[in-house]
Write a structure and sequence with these properties.
With 116 residues, the chain is mainly α. 72% of the residues lie in helices and 0% in strands. Helix 4 crosses helix 5 and helix 4 runs parallel beside helix 7 (97-115). This is DUF2384 domain-containing protein. It comes from Dactylosporangium darangshiense.
């Protein structure tokens, strides 16, 4: 898994999968309006792309389990990825290679349990 950049079409996909508000939050924007401004700035697209790649990977894990509708709620749930006081969305917003892997692993475990 990589915390590399995400293309503009990948950002569009994240918005389609998780909604604009949650995508803007994970991207690091203070508001949806700021998120829209950032999308016009190549430097910002590269910066937020690393954060959003993890969000798309989480959404894909939920989609594979036929639970895509639960992804946004899970990302907002404090403690869902095993970090007390922090939601998976916040962990992705603060993205490091370790936190993205931790969130994705927790999403995979959650969706496996949901399938059982």
């Amino acid at each position: 898994m990589s915390v590399g950049v995400l293309s503009t079409s990948g950002i569009d996909r994240c918005v389609a999968l998780l909604g604009e508000d949650l995508t803007a939050y994970i991207a690091g924007a203070a508001s949806v309006t700021e998120f829209h401004r950032w999308r016009a700035d190549r430097g910002r697209v590269a910066e937020m792309g690393g954060r959003l790649r993890g969000a798309v990977e989480v959404a894909d894990a939920f989609a594979r389990a036929n639970r895509l509708g639960a992804a946004a709620g899970w990302l907002r749930e404090v403690g869902a990825a095993g970090m007390a006081g922090r939601s998976p969305a916040r962990m992705l917003r603060e993205a490091t290679e370790d936190t993205v892997k931790r969130v994705l692993d927790a999403a995979e475990r959650f969706t496996r349990r949901a399938r059982s």
